[in-house]
Structures
1.
Amino acid sequence: MQMNFYMPTKVIMADNCVINHSEEFSKLGTKAMLVTGKSSAKKNGAQDDVIAALTAQNMEYVVFDKVMSNPTIACAYEGAAFAKANNVDLIIAIGGGSPMDAAKAISLLAAQEIKEEDLFSGNYGKEVIPMIHIPTTAGTGSEVTPYSILTNDAKQTKTSIAAPILFPEVALCDPKYMMHLGMATTINTAIDALSHAVEGMLSVKATAVTDVMAIESIKKISACHEALKKRELSLEDRGNLLYASTLAGMVISHTGTTAVHSMGYSLTYFKDIDHGRANGLLLAGFLRVVEKEIPERTSRILEAMGLKTVDELKVWLEELLGEKENITAEDIAKYSPIAIQAKNIMNCPVRVNEAQITEIYKESFGI
């Protein structure tokens, strides 16, 4: 057996871990920059806890709270300029996937001079501002991945910066920050994590180790299905979803994602459909294509969910997603050529072509 596994991020998952492990901040710097959205980190208490932890360590800090949903390249460069102007030596990301993705790009651009046309080239030096990530949603797993996903208007999609230097140094994971998270976001992010775990098992880069983590993640998310369906989650449920999301992040750090993400990006870019929801709308259709060639993989995934067929998975997802958006044949004709060009298409164990991509879109939206 040949296998590589690399996970340099120190993960601390516990109640009140930000306050109780304040020394993690001072180990990495003296002046921090908090990277957040406009309001969520303030409302859920995470930002106050970080400030208290920094104060306890006698550290200075500044706040960059301009990260929008699906952060742009311009946002990353603006944040990097802010970091350089304030001479920060530590980046602290607080939030869901958007602040964490933005923080990674900011930490890279603040340490290296990279032209916009070279941003996604993969040709980077080793310099980066160290990062601590504090997730406040249970979906992206970005706190343990080396990826920064940015909106790329030039290609009318989302594009990934990927480099080992983008792994955060520390992830501080506390489910209490998710207790008042809206149910739509809770469901969308849970499905995003499920998609990561499932796609990780369907990647050509999957290994025995990533499969173990993926199956554990799938089981934990599936066990929360009834609570998600009833829109009633306990702190324990939130903790299980956070654990599952972090595991799934570790999985895709090694396997990457597949056609589901490639296709979902267009739904997000053109229709403003939440990333996790977009994945959920497409997941059963993609799994049906894979099942025709490698049914044993599909069976393992379904078994971990307590299901027997892809049709049952489709119902499982629809119970959470509700009414679907209106996507037309004309929309699909626009999206398919974009999706087939994405890098993660090459991760699929089944080589899908543009016609198959089109069929998955059509099946997913009943066209």
2.
Amino acid sequence: MTHPGVDQAYLLNDQYKNASNLNKRIQLHARFSTNAYGWHPWVFDHALRAPVNARVLEVGCGPGELWRENLDRVPDGWRVTLSDFSPGMLEKVQQNLAALAERFAFRQLDVQAMPFDNDSFDLVIANHMLYHVPDIDRGLAEIARVLAPGGRLLAATNGRNHLRQMRELRVKFHQLYGTGIAPDFADTFGMLTFELSTGAQLLQPHFAHIALHPYADALRVTDVEPLFTYMRSGLLYDVSDAVQAQFKEFLAQEMQAAGGALHVDKDIGLFEATVS
């Protein structure tokens, strides 16, 4: 069975046909993350080490949140290309950045076969997307190919404990009611390929210097509705309205039992890898 996390038809036609599911997940993190500095500014701090005239590529840019949150920090000399596998995502990012569209180029592409010459970029950003690449070695080889000597890859991903309390809530619900809220990718099919414990090993054949920067954060969720919406957005198959309503009520009971706030761990970080 194809791992749904790398099933290109599922990702393109269902999960990431447009920005709807991703936006639901972004909103939960935006409202309830405990790290006040914020993920996207933190990632951009690392990106700003690129030259003032850098050629920058983001693969899997999604709706462009990294750039929307850092528009006033983008150096004037940067030439930025935003790319995604999904036409729906590209349409959304162009809408989101319409006011400054002249600062960006947009390309639909597959990171496993990019339409760029060797040494085309000084910085490539892959923000939580490499675990969706079917042939990760091929994708990383392509990224290394398009990077100029000394160029860097910033690759964000999750670890094994990321959002583990959400998985535990699904398990508990199933044990109590014996009914079908779909487990997430990791629950059913094993861990995703490119994650915090495996990323360095996967990067080593293609990059000379590799560092992992952990990001300390968690969720303190005090509203059931966005938590329910987040968890529903990642379901792998449809469930009935009745089961969804039952699951939402279950989440409300769990939140009340926890004193009105559910704690959810994040296990997240950024690999920085340099080509020789």
3.
Amino acid sequence: MWDYSDKVKDHFFNPRNVGTIEEPDGLGEVGSLACGDALQLMFKLDEQGRIANVKFQTFGCGSAIAASSALTEMIKGKTIEQAQKVTNQDIADYLDGLPEQKMHCSVMGREALEAAIENYRTGKHVRRDAESKIICTCFGVTEGEIARVIRENGLSSVEQVTNYCKAGGGCGGCHSDIEAILQRLGAKEPAKAAAAQKRPARRPRSLTNIKRMQLVQEIIDSQIRPALQRDGGDIELIDIDGPRVLVALRGMCSQCPAAGVTLEQWVQAKLREFIDEGISVEEARE
């Protein structure tokens, strides 16, 4: 499992500035539901040209929610020029760090901000590096986007590139192209990225059965149940046997032909994200 900082958990459970703004001055949209992460960010300026209001909506993991929430807090009160200087590493630092495998969430936040600023300046919704060659067809990542995360974060391996922008995380057919980009750029490491890589890794927490049950119930109550209830469904925690979590789907969910998909891709994914990547969710037969 990944051990998240208290700030990451706070911004995940209590996200700031969620929603939309009528007639925003800048609007940026990045990602894709097909790729698992999507983010919409918008802002409104005051008479002094500072960001007076900023909102976001995201579909993604807990780290994506936390990174988006943190970014909105970071840019409030800033001018466009000041906000544009915020990097993905700044977002991660604000959250007291992100797991290496989740750094792409901070990159997505920075890209959404840049898209919103570009929209404010030109009135157009244009994807950064739109004219650049697509290297990773699985996730639609361009050569320009890959080169940028390598330069800005001092990346030196295909695995790191995948962590920061998802490129190479699908079929793997683009690994040789990513390696070629790494070699061309010389994989030079900036001081900030070098310092970040020297930080000691967080040790996984050891969970007692009672603590595991408390965490599972907390995630179900705060994140899973509200989403199911909006569609007329519900979920009940029945029992926990080590890494096995037994639940019962209620309401409309109990009759849904896609119940198995809901359990695996939503319930199980959420519990693995914040508790233990070895968790398996099963439907209790009553």
